[in-house]
What does this fold into?
Amino acid sequence: MRRLLLVHGGRPGGRAARLVAAIQAAVLADVADVTLLVRPALLATAEDLLEAEALLLVTPEHFGYMSGALKDFFDRTFYPVEGKTPGLRYGLVVTAGTDGTGTCRGVERIARGYGWSEVAEPVLLVGEPDDAGVGRACELGLALAAGLSVGIY
Ligand SMILES: Cc1cc2nc3c(=O)[nH]c(=O)nc-3n(C[C@H](O)[C@H](O)[C@H](O)COP(=O)(O)O)c2cc1C
It folds into this structure.
C-alpha cells in the first residue's frame, strides 16, 4: 500500500475537521491501494513525514497565517527531516473567514524549504465550505491518492 499523509489543524467539529472527514471518505471510496493516514498537526511526527509518499495539509487561517498547530508541526519536524524528503508531492487546503492568502503564502514558503513539490494550486475556501468547495478539497486529496496509486508520485 502507498502512504498518503494528511496533517490538519483546526478545532474538533470545525470546518477543517469536516473537510478532512470528506476527503477521508472520498479517498476510501475511490482509491483502493493507498493508505490515508490522518494526523492532527499537534500529534504528527517527523517519522510520519519520513514514511509518507505524498502529503496533504489542511488548515484554517489564524491571524493571517496557518494555524499554530500546523506551524508547530513544521517547527518540530524541519530539522529532523531536513534533506530527507526532497520532491515530496503535497497539496494544501485552507479554510478561512475572509482571506486565507497569508496562509497559502506561508505554507508554500515553508514547503519550499523542505524541498517539496506542490501538485496543484492550493484549495482556498473562504467562509462556510459549500458542496463545490468540499468537492474541490476532495479532488485534491483524490489527485494525490490517484497519483500514488498509478505510480506517478
Ligand atoms: C483565532 C482566530 C483567528 C482567525 N484569523 C483569521 C484570519 O486572519 N483570516 C481569515 O480569513 N480568517 C480568520 N479566522 C477565521 C477562520 O479561519 C475560519 O473561521 C476557519 O474556517 C475556521 O476553521 P475551523 O472551523 O476548522 O477552526 C480566524 C479564526 C480564529 C478562531
User: Anything to note?
Assistant: The chain has a mean pLDDT of 98. The chain has one domain: 2-130+138-150. The beta strands are 2-8, 34-40, 54-62, 65-66, 89-96, 117-118, 123-126. DSSP finds five helices and seven strands in the chain.
